Amino acid sequence: MTTKIRLFSIAATLTAAALWAQGPGYPGAPDNSANTGNAVDPPSRVARLDLIQGQVSFQPAGVQDWTAATMNYPMTTGDHLYADDNSYAELEVGSSAIRVGPRGGMGVVNLDDHTVQLRLDQGAMIVRLKSLAEGESYEIDTTQGAITLLRPGEYRIDTDPDRNATMVTVRSGDAEVTANGGAFPVHPRSTAYFTGDGQPQVQSENPADDFDRFSMDRDQQEDRMPPPRYVSRDMPGWQDLDRNGTWTETPEYGAVWRPQVVAGWAPYRYGHWAWIEPWGWTWIDDAPWGFAPFHYGRWVTVGGGWAWVPGPVAPRPVYAPALVAFVGGPGFHVGVGIGSVAWFPLGPREPFVPAYHVSTVYVNRVNVTTVNVTNVTVVNRTYVNQRVGVTAVNQTTFTSAQPVNRSLVVIPHEQIVRAQVVGTAPSVAPQRASIVGMRVGNVPHPPAAVMNRQVYVRNAPPPAPVPFAARQQALQANPGRPVDPQTMHQLRQESPARQSNYRPAAPPSNQGSPQRFGGGNQRGGNPSMSNQPASNQPAANQQNNPRNAGFGGYPNRNQSAPAGGQPNPGAGQQSAGSSSQTNRANSQNTSEPPAPVSRRNRETNTPPNNTQEAQQPRRHPQPQAQPQEHQQRQQQHEQQSESRDNKKKDNKRDDQKQ
Q1: Measuring CA to CA, which residue among 269, 346, 340, 257 is closest to residue 306?
Q2: pLDDT interval class at 651 (50, 70, 90)
Q3: 145-159, 442-456, 488-502: which has the highest mean pLDDT?
Q4: For residue 180, what pLDDT is reported?
Q5: Disulfide-capable partner of 146 in 12, 170, 424, 458 (CB 3.0 to 4.6 Å)?
């Protein structure tokens, strides 16, 4: 990298400090606690909703309403998602993908820099975990137990609370299930079946169904793409850039990306604003590629058109809600109108000073300070995009999550020139519609009984979100800024106590470690034989083991998927299950994580084409033998092993004599 500043410099930090000196009246100025490092910084990542196929519904944290899900929405702790019949949804967390199948309901229990903790309430979920850093944890919680993903790999979890059963299939990787006060491993090419009581059952992995084939097709699309050259693989949405624009090298900014857009297009003009805590006002773009360029990097005009400047490649870039500056001031509102809200995209070397509560360390991280800079100066207050990229709407459009491009306010050029930059968030308090949007009403969602069921967790979840109604007064008292941590704690104490939707999957630490089923939880190796179904056992109980019907009401496995991995419109229905959130999992890698395994490279995962495998129903382990019978077989096995060892010793002595 040359000494030229591609995006930001240390000068950005100095400029940020100069803006803070303007005092609390500046909407983007951190408070004193943030400057001393006492503030709790928000997570540096979110779960981007990058695929909606069919009817998918969404419940934001802190409200009871369900609304139609929106592409590019950044999901975080406390949010819930539901895919209706014949529908699919996909979330991106860094380089990993989380997919929800038909009639699948899930929630985000905890999502921060070290934890991805989800809850699967009903239906099926597939996780393609492409990386797992040291100290990072992935956990999926159900009404029967908590599943911890131990290594990069491909995993599927099915749950059916009505049958009190969960299945975990490990295509590649390793998982550990904590349930019934104990724990057991699930190794590659295995499927584990466990209920709310009794011993787990493990067998070879289930054959692929429509959901698996849909997921395989998504994997193959990504595997065929060349690796990113100018952005990190952990930047959500990098896959969308090459097919929706072109990269160009520039002498001043380095590599820039030019989108394929219509005439008159400008950044942050085709989409809507939403209130998402802990960040506050957040931009949701309409374009299929509209995530990475609006939450990372900067925009600038190059050669008469808009170009996105991603800046230096960071291993894990820090998410920002919207990299814009808002304008206003008395002269501006006189010329444009009271109640209008206007903004423009920040350009290269222009710092983003969050309006939410952060530390100075966070400000440095979110602005991605460039290292090879020799000339450190404080940049001036002239913003490169203020004259060419201002967008304005009335306040009602802004606060009610309405499409911006349909309600644009024309601003005279002289007003734009003398408009005052007022910060990175407007002094506007959110309304209920700012959270749930305008599409609330008759949307599919899980029954209340499903949402209220308890799930087992391995690690304690964070406190439940404070309802928006309880936060609204505090938000109106300090418009444009989320509630500070101290006030949020007080509001949580004052809120009515609610029954927890979580219960520990293992005994408390002072009662010892969880019992290890199947001879202990060894990471690697083969599943214990004590977990394998006995060949002389009778057929599974039809009520508890849905061998003939799809598990959890999922479509039978003899239904083939159309070409391209798309769902079958005639696929069967699912029964209700349970939904909830998930928590922090603290498991760590004990071995070097292998490279992710692509399903297209595994013969067992090749999408069947009316083959015998495609016609097989989804298999479920036979019921485990009773403890007394198991002990008798174990004793017989030990006696046989001892007899073989003695025979080997006798043969060895005979050989020595000869």
Answers
A1: 257
A2: low
A3: 145-159
A4: 85
A5: 458
Is residue 315 reached through a cis peptide bond, with omega within 30 degrees of 0 on the bond before it? no
Report the candidate in 359, 344, 328, 481 with the shortest Cα–Cα distance to residue 33: 359
Residue 2: pLDDT over 50: no
If one counts the domains in the chain, the total is 3
Q: How confident is the model at residue 418 (pLDDT cuts 50, 70, 90)?
A: confident
Say how far apart CA 161 and CA 504 lie, in whole Å. 17
Domain identity same for 551 and 643: no
561: helix, coil or strand? coil
On the question of pLDDT at 390 being above 90, the answer is yes
- Are 608 and 636 contained in the same domain? no
Taking the model in full, what pTM does it have?
0.77
Count Cβ atoms within 10 A of the Cβ of residue 224 and give its class: 0-12 exposed, 13-18 middle, 19 or more buried.
exposed
Alpha-carbon distance 129 to 138, whole Å? 9
Say which residue the tokens 């519904």 belong to.
57
Domain of 605? 47-222+506-625
Q: What percent of the chain has pLDDT over 90?
A: 56
Query: Residue 594 above 70 pLDDT?
Result: no
Domain shared by 536 and 409, yes or no:
no
- Do 350 and 413 lie in a common domain? yes
488: its two tokens: 């949020």
**Strand 455-457, strand 47-53: pairing:** unpaired
540 Cβ partners below 8 Å, 6+ apart?
Answer: 547, 620, 621, 622, 623
Rounded Cα–Cα distance for residues 242 and 244 (Å): 6
125 is written with which tokens?
């979920």
Q: Strands (DSSP E) along 150-212, which ranges?
A: 153-160, 165-172, 175-179, 182-186, 190-195, 201-204
Tokens of residue 113, six digits: 């820099």
Cα–Cα distance for residue pair 123/103, rounded to 1 Å: 6
53 contacts: CB under 8 Å, gap ≥ 6: 87, 88, 89, 566, 567
Q: Mapped to the 3 state alphabet, what secondary structure does 221-254 carry?
A: HHHCCCCCCCCCCCCCCHHHCHHHEEEEEECCCE
Measure the CA–CA gap between 534 and 529, rounded to whole angstroms.
Answer: 9
| Closest to 396 measured CA to CA, from 450, 341, 453, 439 | 341
Reply yes or no on whether the pLDDT at 553 is more than 90. Answer: no
Residue 202: pLDDT above 60? yes
Q: Which amino acid is it at 188?
A: P
For residue 524, how many other CB atoms are within 10 A of its CB?
Answer: 12
Q: Identify whether residues 407 and 287 lie together within a single domain.
A: yes
The rounded mean pLDDT for the chain is 77
